């Protein structure tokens, strides 16, 4: 049984007060939800505020990125061990916005994934094709390459600390969601590739989230697909009501 995960990626939004407000509103909405893992990913500067606000609740804390070195002369970077120290259990790595605007490559993503796992974090590893890639029938090729390169050199045991997030770039922040069928086909393919790289058993156990314009209105159809194990939510995670409704998609 794969426990579903609903993760909110706040991106570059919310300072301390907004974050505290959000958590205060979210807790009563989700405190009875026991069969879904709930994760929120604020900006670095409010991690410790959110850590205190979620204390004793069923909400977990994630960062949106990290560096691969633990310490050293790397101005501006944050290490996986520092995220653990700040209360994080999860970290998003390889988000398409990092790849698109900040020069992340499959290689840097791979280094970050390994370092994060070594520090004990669970990685939300993002992959996904662009519109041009989908329109030229390269979706499977792109996904295969991203999975192979991103997970290169990982041991079988490491896979328990990896969650894959399939986020078609054309669906992020555009209001355009992949159809339930499009998402299912991609997820089944990703699971097959993981099976080829590791074992079929590990592929069956790994959780694969869908991301890209997930909303309270479309989450149920996506979650009904056999290979979709949760959602990575951007825009709709910024309001406690809509995020709470997504978390409670079964209700
Ligand atoms: P969105 O973002 O839900 O606003 O499309 C998803 C993401 O980028 O993780």
TrEMBL record:
<dbReference type="GO" id="GO:0004807">
    <property type="term" value="F:triose-phosphate isomerase activity"/>
</dbReference>
<dbReference type="GO" id="GO:0006096">
    <property type="term" value="P:glycolytic process"/>
</dbReference>
<keyword id="KW-0324">Glycolysis</keyword>
<dbReference type="InterPro" id="IPR035990">
    <property type="entry name" value="TIM_sf"/>
</dbReference>
<feature type="active site" description="Proton acceptor">
    <location>
        <position position="167"/>
    </location>
</feature>
<dbReference type="InterPro" id="IPR013785">
    <property type="entry name" value="Aldolase_TIM"/>
</dbReference>
<dbReference type="InterPro" id="IPR020861">
    <property type="entry name" value="Triosephosphate_isomerase_AS"/>
</dbReference>
<dbReference type="GO" id="GO:0019563">
    <property type="term" value="P:glycerol catabolic process"/>
</dbReference>
<dbReference type="GO" id="GO:0046166">
    <property type="term" value="P:glyceraldehyde-3-phosphate biosynthetic process"/>
</dbReference>
<comment type="similarity">
    <text>Belongs to the triosephosphate isomerase family.</text>
</comment>
<dbReference type="InterPro" id="IPR022896">
    <property type="entry name" value="TrioseP_Isoase_bac/euk"/>
</dbReference>
<dbReference type="GO" id="GO:0005829">
    <property type="term" value="C:cytosol"/>
</dbReference>
<keyword id="KW-0312">Gluconeogenesis</keyword>
<feature type="binding site">
    <location>
        <position position="213"/>
    </location>
    <ligand>
        <name>substrate</name>
    </ligand>
</feature>
<feature type="binding site">
    <location>
        <begin position="9"/>
        <end position="11"/>
    </location>
    <ligand>
        <name>substrate</name>
    </ligand>
</feature>
<dbReference type="InterPro" id="IPR000652">
    <property type="entry name" value="Triosephosphate_isomerase"/>
</dbReference>
<comment type="pathway">
    <text>Carbohydrate biosynthesis; gluconeogenesis.</text>
</comment>
<comment type="subunit">
    <text>Homodimer.</text>
</comment>
<keyword id="KW-0963">Cytoplasm</keyword>
<comment type="pathway">
    <text>Carbohydrate degradation; glycolysis; D-glyceraldehyde 3-phosphate from glycerone phosphate: step 1/1.</text>
</comment>
<feature type="binding site">
    <location>
        <begin position="234"/>
        <end position="235"/>
    </location>
    <ligand>
        <name>substrate</name>
    </ligand>
</feature>
<comment type="function">
    <text>Involved in the gluconeogenesis. Catalyzes stereospecifically the conversion of dihydroxyacetone phosphate (DHAP) to D-glyceraldehyde-3-phosphate (G3P).</text>
</comment>
<feature type="binding site">
    <location>
        <position position="173"/>
    </location>
    <ligand>
        <name>substrate</name>
    </ligand>
</feature>
<feature type="active site" description="Electrophile">
    <location>
        <position position="95"/>
    </location>
</feature>
<dbReference type="GO" id="GO:0006094">
    <property type="term" value="P:gluconeogenesis"/>
</dbReference>
<protein>
    <recommendedName>
        <fullName>Triosephosphate isomerase</fullName>
        <ecNumber>5.3.1.1</ecNumber>
    </recommendedName>
</protein>
<keyword id="KW-0413">Isomerase</keyword>
<dbReference type="Pfam" id="PF00121">
    <property type="entry name" value="TIM"/>
</dbReference>
């Amino acid at each position: 049984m794969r426990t579903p995960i609903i993760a909110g990626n706040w991106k570059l939004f919310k300072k301390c007060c907004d974050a505290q407000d959000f958590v205060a509103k979210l807790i009563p909405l989700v405190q009875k939800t026991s069969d879904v893992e709930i994760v929120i990913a604020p900006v670095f500067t409010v991690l410790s505020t959110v850590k205190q606000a979620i204390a004793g609740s069923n909400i977990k804390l994630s960062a949106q990125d990290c560096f691969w070195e633990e310490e050293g002369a790397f101005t501006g970077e944050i290490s996986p061990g520092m995220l653990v120290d700040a209360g994080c259990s999860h970290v998003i790595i390889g988000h398409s916005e990092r790849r698109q605007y900040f020069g992340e490559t499959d290689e840097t993503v791979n280094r970050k994934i390994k370092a994060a796992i070594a520090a004990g974090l669970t990685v939300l590893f993002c992959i996904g094709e662009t519109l041009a890639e989908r329109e030229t029938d390269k979706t499977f090729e792109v996904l295969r390459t991203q999975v192979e390169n991103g997970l290169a050199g990982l041991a079988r045991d490491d896979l328990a600390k990896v969650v894959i997030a399939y986020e078609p770039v054309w669906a992020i922040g555009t209001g355009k969601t992949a159809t339930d069928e499009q998402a299912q086909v991609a997820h089944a393919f990703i699971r097959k590739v993981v099976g080829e790289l590791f074992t079929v058993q590990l592929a069956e156990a790994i959780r694969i989230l869908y991301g890209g314009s997930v909303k309270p209105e479309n989450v149920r159809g996506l979650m009904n697909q056999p290979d979709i194990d949760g959602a990575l939510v951007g825009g709709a995670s910024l309001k406690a009501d809509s995020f709470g409704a997504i978390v409670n998609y079964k209700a």
